[in-house]
Amino acid sequence: MKKLFIGIDISKDVFDYCFLNSENEIIEKGQIPNSRKEILKFCKKVKSFKEYEPWICMEHTGHYGYLLSCIFTEEKFYFSMLDPLNLKRSFGITRGKTDAIDAYRIASYALSNKHKLVAYKLPSEELRKLKILMKSRSRYSKISVQLQNGIKANKIANKSMNLEDEIEDDLETLAIFKSKIKIIDKKMLVIIKDAKELKTNYDKIIKVIGIGPIIALACIIETQNFTKFYDPRKFGCHCGIAPFEYSSGSSVRGKTRTSNLCNKSLKGILYKGAWTAIQHDPQLKGYYNRKIEEGKHKFSVANAVAFKIVLRIFAVVKRDEPFVKLAA
Fold first, then answer.
1. Which residues pair with 9 in a beta bridge?
2. Residues 103-116: pLDDT tens digits?
């Protein structure tokens, strides 16, 4: 059966589409409102090309693509969610940009990279809700940190002027956001408790030293309950804790370093877990002290400890035995 590659460029209210055949010929293109009713009409249009086997590709644009991915899953279409940065770099040097042109470029990318396309599997509703709650928690946490810093600054300035009212207002606002964070934490734990598969893995990894509830939840969300990542080294690379060699020929010899193309928020909380593990795990504490004595930088060693924690997380998920605390 002939292949039909469909590129979709999503925006808030509409999405542009472009149908390409295997000869890079445009079969059809257009624009459709991003609503359930119109998307179902679009699905009927795709099914009308009975002589073709369709494969849909679109950018991973977060909440703008939620409805499309849900309906495509219901209709049992093969579709891929592409990384925006990887997609942009694949276009090379370009001039001009419109949504219609981007839809064609996405379809053309699908045609050129058809051997690399991987069908997207929509996460469960529980995982999708956990992800949204975690994002809300992250926003509230950032605001709380800003408020705390502002309170500290105002207390210093209060020595030379009266800022008692401003400090009191900020303290009340801070209490509200801390309360919201606690509510979100409870909601996430309820979701974990009610979902058997999620709870099984959560109970395993929470016992790893250095792993608290938030790190455990973040790992489950990011790995889609360990179905998106099977290899801890790939997950470590995704988190930005896997170092890469930097060299070229015989003259360029840079330091081995991690990549900036990573999930920085997940990297940050894994670092916090690493420092906790260094304090409470005899084996990791001994490793940290040994490397420091060898002259390694403390953050470089903490990065290595964070990766060791990732290895432990994947190890306990893959087996039924619980984590066992080892001696130094």
1. 16
2. 999 999 999 988 88
- Domains, the chain, ranges and CATH? 2-112 (3.30.420.40), 125-194 (1.10.287), 213-318 (no CATH)
How many CB atoms neighbour CB 147 within 10 A? Answer: 19
Contact 43, 75 (CB under 8 A): yes
Alpha-carbon 143 to chain mean position: 21
Per-residue model confidence (pLDDT) at position 87: 80
Helices (H), 113-229: 125-157, 164-194, 196-205, 213-222
Residues in Cβ contact with 34 at an 8 Å cutoff, skipping those fewer than 6 apart: 10, 11, 12, 13, 14, 15, 64, 67, 68
Residue 290's contacts (CB-CB under 8 Å, 6 or more residues apart) are: none
Q: Which two tokens stand for residue 125?
A: 């509703």
Amino acid at 122: L
Reported as a single tens digit per residue, the pLDDT across 216-239 is 999 999 999 999 998 999 999 888
Q: Are 53 and 5 in contact (CB under 8 A)?
A: no
